[in-house]
Amino acid sequence: xxxxxxxxxxxxxxxxxxxxxxxxxxxxxxxxxxxxxxxxxxxxxxxxxxxxxxxxxxxxxxxxxxxxxxxxxxxxxxxxxxxxxxxxxxxxxxxxxxxxxxxxxxxxxxxxxxxxxxxxxxxxxxxxxxxxxxxxxxxxxxxxxxxxxxxxxxxxxxxxxxxxxxxxxxxxxxxxxxxxxxxxxxxxxxxxxxxxxxxxxxxxxxxxxxxxxxxxxxxxxxxxxxxxxxxxxxxxxxxxxxxxxxxxxxxxxxxxxxxxxxxxxxxxxxxxxxxxxxxxxxxxxxxxxxxxxxxxxxxxxxxxxxxxxxxxxxxxxxxxxxxxxxxxxxxxxxxxxxxxxxxxxxxxxxxxxxxxxxxxxxxxxxxxxxxxxxxxxxxxxxxxxxxxxxxxxxxxxxxxxxxxxxxxxxxxxxxxxxxxxxxxxxxxxxxxxxx
Length: 435
What we know:
This protein is α/β, with parallel strands linked by helices. It has twelve helices and 15 strands.
């Protein structure tokens, strides 16, 4: 499981700018106005080949500013979830009462704290960083999140502080799967039905489940672990509730799972937010199953199921490999059909293909449909080799990867799926130039 790094501090010290700098893209909104952190607050980053998760938080301050209680609550949730905390301060303002207030909160967490003194854009400000020794977190690291100065030193310190990965160990033949989706789509009901036990609180109030819960069980002679996750709410006001941080737990669950089950509500259909939720599974290259729950509540005819499948495929094109299962968790109808799908997706996720057979299929695919000229050149393919599993990953050696149009790469992926039954799992194709 990847370590989590929370970035905290008072408003307008440059937390979001530093967050964007660390992850290498402008994901958090930045502005001179305090309190504008919104949108997604979680992302994955890496430094020196070490991956970790980063959490951006709202500013904490000693005042009666609007939403202060909610901001503090959110930040504390992030700090509790984190393995490492980066406290960001502003060298131009020196140590403030708010900085000291935040430091007292951080002492109580008993977590490693790295102090970043931001906005050190030139030497005259660098000396002011020494004032921050008074906060009691050791050597402050002078940085300029805007210009990137000192960020490498900060990342070095983060990497040094990352603890060894901690995860619950299960036997190799145990399949771990998680249920993700918006609140109230029936994830907890489905968990209870799978377990045949009321182990998870089921309620019609969205957001009842706040933690990821692991439960091991046996079904049809095989061991499984089901991970029920906190539901992700639709985006709204930035500080309206603490459920926004349930995304952290959801990503943890995805990261620890072998198969991800995406749950829709047949009554309410799907909305734009579903796409944001399910992209997390796609980013982590996990096998996926799509479950349409509460199927018993829908007025159906002979075309209803086909219409649902068509809508799913049109709106979730990046999940075209994911099988779709229709069931009712509450009525325990068709739930048994889920286990064969989980097993097949898991097997495909771990499938290896013999090199000679792989290259025969690869050569036939190119012969049937040779690549067209692209970028002032024509791709000449030499051979393909499987370089990994979970997910199945393939290196394609070619004269120049820039000559391959994305549609042709997709064609090659489809040929691999067609011939080797990579059911329910993503495939990674890596194109490499052969010298």
